[in-house]
Amino acid sequence: MTDSLTITRPDDWHLHFRDGEFLAQTVPATAAVFARAIVMPNLAPPVVNVEQAAQYRERILAQVPASTAFQPLMTLYLTEGTSPEDIAAAAESGIVFGCKLYPAGATTHSDSGVRDPARIRHLYEALERHDLPLLVHGEVTDSDIDIFDRERVFIDRYLAAIRRDFPALRIVFEHVTTREGVQFVQDSGERTAATVTPQHLMLNRNDLLVGGIRPHNYCLPVLKRAEHQRSIQQTVLEGHPRFFLGTDSAPHSRDAKETACGCAGCYSAPAALPLYAEFFEANGALEQLEGFASHYGADFYGLPRNRETVTLERQSWRIPETIDGGGTTIVPWQAGRELHWATR
Ligand code: DOR
Ligand code: ZN
Questions:
Q1: Would you place residue 109 in the very low, low, confident or very high pLDDT band (cuts 50, 70, 90)?
Q2: Does residue 275 line the site of ligand 1, with CB under 6 A?
Q3: Among residues of the chain, what percentage have pLDDT more than 90?
Q4: Is 108 in the pocket of ligand 1 (CB under 6 A)?
Q5: Which of 97, 128, 182, 225 has a 20 to 30 A CA-CA distance from 344?
Q6: What number of CA atoms fall less than 13 Å from residue 203's CA on the CB side?
Q7: Is the shortest distance between the CB of 42 and ligand 1 below 6 Å?
Protein backbone atom coordinates (compact mmCIF):
# COMPACT_ATOMS: atom_id res chain seq x y z
CA MET A 1 0.00 0.00 0.00
CA THR A 2 1.35 3.42 -0.97
CA ASP A 3 1.81 5.70 2.01
CA SER A 4 2.98 8.76 0.18
CA LEU A 5 2.01 10.09 -3.22
CA THR A 6 3.72 13.02 -4.91
CA ILE A 7 1.93 14.54 -7.88
CA THR A 8 2.17 17.68 -9.98
CA ARG A 9 0.52 20.47 -7.97
CA PRO A 10 -3.16 20.51 -9.00
CA ASP A 11 -5.42 23.34 -10.17
CA ASP A 12 -9.09 23.85 -9.36
CA TRP A 13 -10.89 24.64 -12.61
CA HIS A 14 -14.12 25.87 -10.95
CA LEU A 15 -14.67 27.49 -7.60
CA HIS A 16 -16.38 30.33 -5.73
CA PHE A 17 -14.20 32.43 -3.45
CA ARG A 18 -16.98 34.94 -2.71
CA ASP A 19 -15.86 38.37 -1.52
CA GLY A 20 -15.27 40.46 1.58
CA GLU A 21 -14.89 38.57 4.85
CA PHE A 22 -15.09 35.17 3.17
CA LEU A 23 -11.82 35.71 1.31
CA ALA A 24 -9.65 35.35 4.41
CA GLN A 25 -10.99 31.78 4.70
CA THR A 26 -11.52 30.69 1.12
CA VAL A 27 -8.34 31.93 -0.54
CA PRO A 28 -5.79 30.42 1.89
CA ALA A 29 -7.74 27.13 1.96
CA THR A 30 -7.40 26.74 -1.80
CA ALA A 31 -3.92 28.24 -2.08
CA ALA A 32 -2.59 25.68 0.41
CA VAL A 33 -2.95 22.94 -2.19
CA PHE A 34 -3.83 24.33 -5.60
CA ALA A 35 -1.53 26.38 -7.82
CA ARG A 36 -4.32 28.07 -9.80
CA ALA A 37 -8.10 28.26 -9.76
CA ILE A 38 -10.78 29.43 -12.16
CA VAL A 39 -12.70 31.93 -10.04
CA MET A 40 -16.43 32.15 -10.67
CA PRO A 41 -17.83 35.65 -11.20
CA ASN A 42 -21.23 35.32 -9.49
CA LEU A 43 -20.71 38.02 -6.90
CA ALA A 44 -23.57 40.37 -6.10
CA PRO A 45 -23.35 42.39 -8.31
CA PRO A 46 -21.54 40.08 -10.76
CA VAL A 47 -18.11 40.56 -12.34
CA VAL A 48 -19.00 41.69 -15.85
CA ASN A 49 -15.94 43.50 -17.20
CA VAL A 50 -12.15 43.46 -17.07
CA GLU A 51 -11.96 46.36 -14.65
CA GLN A 52 -14.16 44.58 -12.11
CA ALA A 53 -12.23 41.34 -12.64
CA ALA A 54 -8.94 43.17 -12.02
CA GLN A 55 -10.26 44.70 -8.79
CA TYR A 56 -11.64 41.38 -7.58
CA ARG A 57 -8.33 39.73 -8.45
CA GLU A 58 -6.49 42.24 -6.27
CA ARG A 59 -8.80 41.51 -3.33
CA ILE A 60 -8.07 37.81 -3.76
CA LEU A 61 -4.31 38.30 -4.12
CA ALA A 62 -4.31 40.31 -0.87
CA GLN A 63 -5.35 37.10 0.92
CA VAL A 64 -2.83 34.74 -0.72
CA PRO A 65 -0.35 33.59 1.93
CA ALA A 66 3.21 34.71 1.21
CA SER A 67 4.31 31.07 1.30
CA THR A 68 2.41 30.19 -1.90
CA ALA A 69 2.52 31.34 -5.51
CA PHE A 70 -1.22 30.83 -6.02
CA GLN A 71 -2.68 32.50 -9.12
CA PRO A 72 -6.41 33.28 -9.47
CA LEU A 73 -7.66 32.87 -13.05
CA MET A 74 -10.53 35.31 -13.44
CA THR A 75 -13.77 34.95 -15.40
CA LEU A 76 -16.48 37.30 -16.62
CA TYR A 77 -20.20 36.80 -16.12
CA LEU A 78 -22.11 36.98 -19.39
CA THR A 79 -25.22 39.16 -19.29
CA GLU A 80 -27.61 40.34 -21.97
CA GLY A 81 -25.63 43.60 -21.92
CA THR A 82 -22.21 42.01 -22.55
CA SER A 83 -20.69 43.16 -25.85
CA PRO A 84 -18.18 41.55 -28.21
CA GLU A 85 -15.87 44.41 -27.21
CA ASP A 86 -16.05 43.26 -23.57
CA ILE A 87 -14.95 39.83 -24.73
CA ALA A 88 -12.12 41.22 -26.86
CA ALA A 89 -10.92 43.21 -23.84
CA ALA A 90 -11.11 40.10 -21.65
CA ALA A 91 -9.08 38.06 -24.13
CA GLU A 92 -6.41 40.75 -24.25
CA SER A 93 -6.34 41.36 -20.50
CA GLY A 94 -4.07 38.47 -19.55
CA ILE A 95 -6.12 37.98 -16.35
CA VAL A 96 -9.43 36.62 -17.71
CA PHE A 97 -9.45 32.95 -18.76
CA GLY A 98 -13.11 32.30 -19.54
CA CYS A 99 -16.64 33.70 -19.63
CA LYS A 100 -19.45 32.09 -17.66
CA LEU A 101 -22.93 31.54 -19.00
CA TYR A 102 -25.53 31.41 -16.26
CA PRO A 103 -29.07 30.92 -17.53
CA ALA A 104 -31.03 33.53 -15.56
CA GLY A 105 -32.40 32.07 -12.35
CA ALA A 106 -30.44 28.81 -12.53
CA THR A 107 -28.51 29.20 -9.29
CA THR A 108 -26.96 31.50 -6.66
CA HIS A 109 -26.69 35.09 -7.94
CA SER A 110 -27.76 34.23 -11.46
CA ASP A 111 -30.51 36.86 -11.75
CA SER A 112 -28.33 38.94 -14.07
CA GLY A 113 -27.76 35.93 -16.31
CA VAL A 114 -29.01 35.26 -19.82
CA ARG A 115 -32.73 34.61 -20.25
CA ASP A 116 -32.37 33.01 -23.68
CA PRO A 117 -28.98 31.38 -24.36
CA ALA A 118 -29.95 31.11 -28.05
CA ARG A 119 -29.91 34.91 -28.34
CA ILE A 120 -26.26 35.63 -27.54
CA ARG A 121 -24.75 34.17 -30.69
CA HIS A 122 -22.69 37.34 -31.16
CA LEU A 123 -20.98 36.52 -27.85
CA TYR A 124 -20.28 32.88 -28.76
CA GLU A 125 -18.85 34.17 -32.02
CA ALA A 126 -16.59 36.63 -30.17
CA LEU A 127 -15.44 33.96 -27.69
CA GLU A 128 -14.64 31.62 -30.56
CA ARG A 129 -12.76 34.34 -32.46
CA HIS A 130 -10.66 35.27 -29.41
CA ASP A 131 -10.29 31.64 -28.30
CA LEU A 132 -11.64 32.41 -24.83
CA PRO A 133 -13.42 29.42 -23.27
CA LEU A 134 -17.19 29.47 -22.70
CA LEU A 135 -17.92 28.06 -19.25
CA VAL A 136 -21.47 26.77 -19.04
CA HIS A 137 -23.91 26.23 -16.21
CA GLY A 138 -25.90 23.76 -18.27
CA GLU A 139 -29.43 23.85 -16.92
CA VAL A 140 -32.68 25.26 -18.28
CA THR A 141 -34.73 27.18 -15.76
CA ASP A 142 -38.29 26.78 -17.07
CA SER A 143 -40.66 26.07 -14.22
CA ASP A 144 -42.33 23.28 -16.18
CA ILE A 145 -39.08 21.31 -16.55
CA ASP A 146 -38.41 18.92 -13.70
CA ILE A 147 -35.29 19.89 -11.77
CA PHE A 148 -33.74 16.46 -12.40
CA ASP A 149 -34.15 16.93 -16.19
CA ARG A 150 -32.79 20.44 -16.48
CA GLU A 151 -29.29 19.47 -17.56
CA ARG A 152 -30.45 17.04 -20.23
CA VAL A 153 -32.93 19.54 -21.65
CA PHE A 154 -30.27 22.28 -21.73
CA ILE A 155 -28.08 20.09 -23.93
CA ASP A 156 -30.90 19.35 -26.35
CA ARG A 157 -32.30 22.86 -26.43
CA TYR A 158 -29.12 24.97 -26.49
CA LEU A 159 -25.76 23.31 -26.09
CA ALA A 160 -25.90 20.94 -29.05
CA ALA A 161 -26.57 23.87 -31.37
CA ILE A 162 -23.84 26.05 -29.84
CA ARG A 163 -21.40 23.16 -30.25
CA ARG A 164 -22.43 22.65 -33.89
CA ASP A 165 -22.43 26.31 -34.90
CA PHE A 166 -19.17 27.36 -33.24
CA PRO A 167 -16.87 24.42 -33.86
CA ALA A 168 -13.67 26.11 -32.69
CA LEU A 169 -15.19 27.45 -29.46
CA ARG A 170 -13.74 25.86 -26.34
CA ILE A 171 -16.62 24.87 -24.08
CA VAL A 172 -16.37 23.69 -20.49
CA PHE A 173 -19.50 21.91 -19.33
CA GLU A 174 -19.24 22.86 -15.68
CA HIS A 175 -20.07 20.42 -12.87
CA VAL A 176 -21.44 17.67 -15.10
CA THR A 177 -24.14 15.65 -13.32
CA THR A 178 -25.82 13.36 -15.84
CA ARG A 179 -25.10 10.46 -18.18
CA GLU A 180 -26.31 12.67 -21.02
CA GLY A 181 -23.82 15.38 -20.04
CA VAL A 182 -20.97 12.88 -19.89
CA GLN A 183 -21.98 11.45 -23.26
CA PHE A 184 -22.22 14.89 -24.81
CA VAL A 185 -18.69 15.80 -23.74
CA GLN A 186 -17.29 12.44 -24.82
CA ASP A 187 -18.91 12.75 -28.25
CA SER A 188 -18.09 16.40 -28.87
CA GLY A 189 -14.40 16.27 -29.65
CA GLU A 190 -11.29 18.04 -28.52
CA ARG A 191 -12.80 21.43 -27.81
CA THR A 192 -15.38 20.29 -25.26
CA ALA A 193 -14.52 19.36 -21.68
CA ALA A 194 -16.19 19.06 -18.29
CA THR A 195 -15.36 19.79 -14.69
CA VAL A 196 -16.29 17.20 -12.07
CA THR A 197 -17.06 18.07 -8.44
CA PRO A 198 -16.33 15.78 -5.49
CA GLN A 199 -20.02 15.68 -4.55
CA HIS A 200 -21.20 14.55 -7.99
CA LEU A 201 -18.50 11.85 -8.02
CA MET A 202 -19.10 10.59 -4.50
CA LEU A 203 -22.82 11.09 -3.94
CA ASN A 204 -26.21 10.64 -5.57
CA ARG A 205 -29.64 11.96 -4.72
CA ASN A 206 -30.18 9.40 -1.96
CA ASP A 207 -27.44 11.21 -0.07
CA LEU A 208 -29.56 14.34 -0.25
CA LEU A 209 -32.97 12.94 0.62
CA VAL A 210 -32.92 9.55 2.35
CA GLY A 211 -33.39 9.63 6.13
CA GLY A 212 -33.98 13.39 6.14
CA ILE A 213 -33.00 16.35 4.04
CA ARG A 214 -29.24 16.95 4.13
CA PRO A 215 -28.79 20.62 3.33
CA HIS A 216 -25.01 20.39 3.16
CA ASN A 217 -25.29 18.01 0.21
CA TYR A 218 -27.57 20.41 -1.65
CA CYS A 219 -25.94 22.00 -4.65
CA LEU A 220 -26.90 22.92 -8.18
CA PRO A 221 -27.16 21.16 -10.51
CA VAL A 222 -28.81 18.93 -7.91
CA LEU A 223 -27.42 15.43 -7.23
CA LYS A 224 -28.89 12.86 -9.61
CA ARG A 225 -29.69 9.13 -9.59
CA ALA A 226 -26.95 6.57 -8.93
CA GLU A 227 -26.83 5.58 -12.61
CA HIS A 228 -25.77 9.13 -13.52
CA GLN A 229 -23.19 9.13 -10.75
CA ARG A 230 -21.82 5.85 -12.13
CA SER A 231 -21.46 7.34 -15.57
CA ILE A 232 -19.40 10.27 -14.21
CA GLN A 233 -17.32 7.88 -12.10
CA GLN A 234 -16.64 5.60 -15.03
CA THR A 235 -15.30 8.25 -17.38
CA VAL A 236 -13.11 9.77 -14.65
CA LEU A 237 -11.77 6.37 -13.54
CA GLU A 238 -10.90 5.54 -17.12
CA GLY A 239 -8.77 8.68 -17.20
CA HIS A 240 -10.70 10.48 -19.91
CA PRO A 241 -8.54 13.56 -20.61
CA ARG A 242 -11.43 16.00 -21.05
CA PHE A 243 -12.91 15.46 -17.57
CA PHE A 244 -10.98 17.27 -14.88
CA LEU A 245 -11.06 18.62 -11.34
CA GLY A 246 -13.38 21.53 -10.57
CA THR A 247 -14.60 21.50 -6.99
CA ASP A 248 -17.39 24.07 -7.34
CA SER A 249 -16.48 24.82 -3.74
CA ALA A 250 -19.14 27.37 -2.79
CA PRO A 251 -19.41 28.48 0.83
CA HIS A 252 -22.60 29.73 2.40
CA SER A 253 -23.05 30.56 6.06
CA ARG A 254 -24.46 27.82 8.24
CA ASP A 255 -27.62 29.93 8.69
CA ALA A 256 -28.13 30.13 4.94
CA LYS A 257 -27.80 26.34 4.54
CA GLU A 258 -29.71 25.10 7.60
CA THR A 259 -32.99 26.88 7.04
CA ALA A 260 -36.42 26.38 5.49
CA CYS A 261 -35.11 27.53 2.08
CA GLY A 262 -31.45 26.62 2.06
CA CYS A 263 -28.84 27.84 -0.41
CA ALA A 264 -27.15 25.57 -2.95
CA GLY A 265 -23.44 25.01 -2.57
CA CYS A 266 -20.87 22.75 -0.87
CA TYR A 267 -17.75 24.21 0.73
CA SER A 268 -15.28 21.50 -0.19
CA ALA A 269 -12.02 23.46 -0.59
CA PRO A 270 -10.41 22.61 2.78
CA ALA A 271 -10.46 18.87 2.05
CA ALA A 272 -10.80 18.77 -1.72
CA LEU A 273 -7.67 16.93 -2.80
CA PRO A 274 -7.84 14.28 -0.03
CA LEU A 275 -11.52 13.72 -0.90
CA TYR A 276 -10.75 13.11 -4.57
CA ALA A 277 -7.82 10.88 -3.53
CA GLU A 278 -10.16 8.78 -1.38
CA PHE A 279 -12.50 8.36 -4.31
CA PHE A 280 -9.78 7.22 -6.69
CA GLU A 281 -8.21 4.89 -4.14
CA ALA A 282 -11.54 3.33 -3.16
CA ASN A 283 -11.99 2.48 -6.84
CA GLY A 284 -8.49 1.09 -7.32
CA ALA A 285 -7.43 3.92 -9.60
CA LEU A 286 -5.19 6.16 -7.53
CA GLU A 287 -2.84 6.39 -10.50
CA GLN A 288 -5.51 8.39 -12.34
CA LEU A 289 -5.60 11.16 -9.74
CA GLU A 290 -2.70 13.15 -11.15
CA GLY A 291 -4.04 13.44 -14.70
CA PHE A 292 -7.48 14.43 -13.45
CA ALA A 293 -6.26 16.90 -10.81
CA SER A 294 -3.11 18.31 -12.35
CA HIS A 295 -2.76 17.72 -16.10
CA TYR A 296 -5.98 17.58 -18.11
CA GLY A 297 -7.39 20.96 -17.11
CA ALA A 298 -4.20 22.84 -17.91
CA ASP A 299 -3.94 21.01 -21.23
CA PHE A 300 -7.50 21.95 -22.17
CA TYR A 301 -7.06 25.61 -21.22
CA GLY A 302 -3.77 25.71 -23.14
CA LEU A 303 -1.81 26.65 -20.02
CA PRO A 304 1.45 25.05 -18.88
CA ARG A 305 1.22 22.22 -16.39
CA ASN A 306 2.51 23.23 -12.97
CA ARG A 307 6.13 22.42 -12.29
CA GLU A 308 5.81 22.22 -8.51
CA THR A 309 4.48 19.13 -6.76
CA VAL A 310 2.29 18.33 -3.78
CA THR A 311 2.64 15.30 -1.54
CA LEU A 312 -0.27 13.36 -0.10
CA GLU A 313 0.52 11.26 2.93
CA ARG A 314 -1.49 8.47 4.45
CA GLN A 315 -2.70 10.04 7.63
CA SER A 316 -6.09 10.02 9.36
CA TRP A 317 -7.77 13.29 10.15
CA ARG A 318 -11.30 14.61 10.37
CA ILE A 319 -12.87 17.41 8.41
CA PRO A 320 -13.83 19.99 11.06
CA GLU A 321 -17.48 20.33 12.06
CA THR A 322 -17.36 24.06 11.44
CA ILE A 323 -14.99 26.63 9.99
CA ASP A 324 -14.79 30.37 10.64
CA GLY A 325 -15.74 32.26 7.51
CA GLY A 326 -14.70 35.65 8.84
CA GLY A 327 -17.51 36.33 11.26
CA THR A 328 -19.89 33.68 9.92
CA THR A 329 -19.80 29.98 10.61
CA ILE A 330 -19.42 27.65 7.62
CA VAL A 331 -20.13 23.93 7.78
CA PRO A 332 -17.64 22.38 5.35
CA TRP A 333 -18.82 19.68 3.00
CA GLN A 334 -18.52 16.23 4.66
CA ALA A 335 -17.97 17.83 8.07
CA GLY A 336 -16.79 15.29 10.64
CA ARG A 337 -15.78 12.69 8.02
CA GLU A 338 -12.56 10.82 8.61
CA LEU A 339 -10.14 11.04 5.71
CA HIS A 340 -7.09 8.88 5.12
CA TRP A 341 -4.96 11.22 3.05
CA ALA A 342 -3.51 14.56 4.10
CA THR A 343 -1.46 17.06 2.14
CA ARG A 344 1.72 18.66 3.40
O1 DOR B 1 -24.41 24.70 -5.79
C2 DOR B 1 -24.05 25.69 -6.38
N3 DOR B 1 -23.57 26.77 -5.72
N4 DOR B 1 -24.15 25.72 -7.70
C5 DOR B 1 -23.90 26.84 -8.40
O6 DOR B 1 -24.07 26.82 -9.58
C7 DOR B 1 -23.52 28.10 -7.71
C8 DOR B 1 -22.95 27.84 -6.39
C9 DOR B 1 -22.91 29.09 -5.54
O10 DOR B 1 -22.46 30.14 -6.02
O11 DOR B 1 -23.30 29.01 -4.38
ZN1 ZN C 1 -20.08 26.96 -9.43
A1: confident
A2: no
A3: 96
A4: yes
A5: 97
A6: 22
A7: yes
User: Which residue among 248, 255, 299, 324 is the active-site one?
Assistant: 248
248 — alpha (psi -120 to 50), left (phi > 0) or beta? left
Q: Is the pLDDT of residue 319 over 80?
A: yes
Which string of b and e fits 112-139 if b means at least 16 CB within 10 Å?
A: bbbeebeebeebbebbbeeebbbbbbbb
Q: Burial code of 326-343, b = ≥16 C-beta within 10 A, e = fewer?
A: eebebbbbbbeeebebbb
For residues 219-227, average pLDDT: 98
pLDDT digits (tens, 9 = 90+) for 10-23: 999 999 999 999 99
Query: pLDDT per residue over 275-294, tens digit each?
Result: 999 999 999 999 999 999 99
Half-sphere exposure of residue 106: CA atoms within 13 angstroms, side-chain side: 24
Q: Is 146 a catalytic residue?
A: no
Q: Which 8-state DSSP code applies to residue 159?
A: I
CA of 13 relative to ligand 2 center, distance in Å: 10
pLDDT at site 143: 93
Is the minimum distance from the CB of 31 to ligand 1 under 6 angstroms? Answer: no
Ligand 1, pocket-test mutation among 108, 173, 257, most atoms within 8 A of CB: 108
Domain boundaries, the chain: 11-306
CATH class of 11-306: alpha beta
pLDDT of residue 108: 81
Atom of ligand 1 nearest to the CA of 219: 1
Mutational test site, ligand 1, from 47, 100, 174, 220, max ligand atoms within 8 Å of CB: 220
Pocket test for ligand 1, best of 12, 14, 15, 16 (most atoms within 8 A of CB): 16
Judge if the beta carbon of residue 14 lies within 6 A of ligand 1.
no
* Lowest mean pLDDT, pick from 102-116, 159-173, 230-244: 102-116
